[in-house]
Design brief:
The protein is an alpha/beta fold and 359 residues long. The protein contains 14 helices and 13 strands. Strands 4, 5, 6, 9, 10 and 11 form a six-stranded parallel beta sheet that branches. Strands 3-13-12 form a three-stranded mixed beta sheet, with no helix packed on it. The protein has a two-stranded antiparallel sheet with strand order 1-2. Strand 9, helix 7 (195-203) and strand 10 form a beta-alpha-beta unit. The longest helix has 28 residues, at 16-43. The relative contact order is 0.18. This is Polysaccharide deacetylase. One of its GO terms (biological process) is carbohydrate metabolic process. Pfam families: Polysacc_deac_1 (PF01522).
Length: 359
């Protein structure tokens, strides 16, 4: 990039032949990878998007944040938590396991009746990374069944035990209609730090859309929570459930796990190709890729991670359509793609992009 007349100008200096060769190589590489990705979706019989990351936080224009608790073992402080949250006029989301529901149904009912959200934390608290898809589905459904029996409501949120997951698990869970929720602020209360340490970890550098993680059945959490809630309220944050925090309508999840509205820029109005599937492919890539991602495609050593990322964004039909494009059409579509992504990332009033291509 270089500056000209005060504006940022984008310069691409690669040859047309090199660009086409690089892109065709990547398309060939991702074809094989894509087979495995699409097999996952077929196994759960869903049309869900290939979402590869859970939601760690939400891009919002207000100061809403969510306090969450994982409940898998004991119930020593349920009444105290309800009292502390009520005093702060705060609603929280409790991720409970099916085993917890078996032992402490009354506690779950109390939490639900107090206006808190009850969400799915698996039935048996397994390690879902690498777990068989059918076993994951069965375990998840069983926990949801138990929660619905107690509260009357089927949960729509899921948090993976141990915070572990892989692409297959996340894709499966989203395909089941569950939003997979992580966190971006961790109290690490399970390690039994002092209440002062918990307060420090969960009240500093918080921003709207944050999701905070705590656990129930811990005395240090019970001691720290009143001060945590008071501090967050004094900073102007509104404490809501995770479902209230999530965005409505179309959204995307970026590479940091941030849930954000889908771009409404003119990127989607660009005609990249006369071929319908190829045009859809370019539109999908324009939404998902960054300039650094695109530059990675043009490197001499394309990584498997780059290929997997591309395969997760495109359907088999779209990949096939791109591969079938004449070289000139592929080249023109790719140039429009890079211009669109660059414009999106540098959307400053008065700025312009002028790609310079050497024939």
């Amino acid at each position: 990039m270089k500056k000209r007349g005060g504006f940022i100008m984008f310069v691409m200096t690669m040859t047309k032949r090199k660009l086409i060769r690089a892109v065709m190589f990547v398309l060939v590489l991702i074809t094989g990878i894509a087979i495995g990705v699409f097999a996952i979706l077929s196994s759960i019989d869903t049309g869900a998007e290939n979402v590869k990351l859970p939601i760690y936080n939400v891009k919002r224009t207000d100061n809403k944040i969510s306090i969450t608790f994982d409940c898998a073992w004991g119930n020593s402080n349920t009444d105290k938590l309800i009292s502390i949250l009520a005093e702060a006029d705060a609603k929280a989301t409790f991720f409970v396991t099916g085993e917890f529901a078996d032992k402490y149904a009354d506690d779950i009912k109390k939490l639900s009746d107090a206006g808190h959200e009850i969400a799915n934390h698996s039935d048996k608290h397994p390690h879902i990374k690498g777990m068989n898809v059918n076993d994951l589905i069965a375990d998840t459904k069983e926990c949801s069944r138990k929660i619905k029996m107690i509260t009357g409501n089927a949960p729509t949120l899921y948090r993976a035990p141990y915070g572990e997951y892989d692409d297959k698990a996340v894709t499966t869970l989203f395909g089941m209609g569950m939003s997979v929720i992580q966190w971006n602020k961790d109290s690490i209360d399970w390690d039994k730090p002092t209440p002062e340490t918990i307060i420090e970890r969960t009240t500093k550098n918080i921003s709207g859309g944050s999701i905070l993680l705590f656990h129930n059945d811990l005395e240090n959490t019970t001691q720290a929570l009143p001060t945590v809630l008071k501090s967050l309220k004094e900073q102007g944050f509104e404490l809501c459930t995770v479902s209230e925090l999530l965005l409505e309508g179309d959204y995307t999840i970026d590479s940091n796990g941030t849930m954000m509205p889908k771009s409404k820029t003119t990127v989607n109005q660009i005609i990249y190709s006369d071929n319908h599937d190829a045009n859809l492919a370019f539109e999908a890539l324009a939404e998902k890729l960054s300039i650094s991602d695109i530059n990675a495609l043009l490197s001499k050593d394309v990584s498997m991670e780059t290929a997997r990322k591309l395969a997760s964004y495109l359907t088999q039909e779209q990949i096939a359509a791109l591969k079938a494009l004449p070289e000139e059409s592929l080249y023109n579509g790719f140039i429009k793609l890079k211009e669109a992504v660059y414009a999106r990332e540098n959307a400053v009033p008065g700025s312009s992009t002028e790609p310079i291509i050497k024939d």
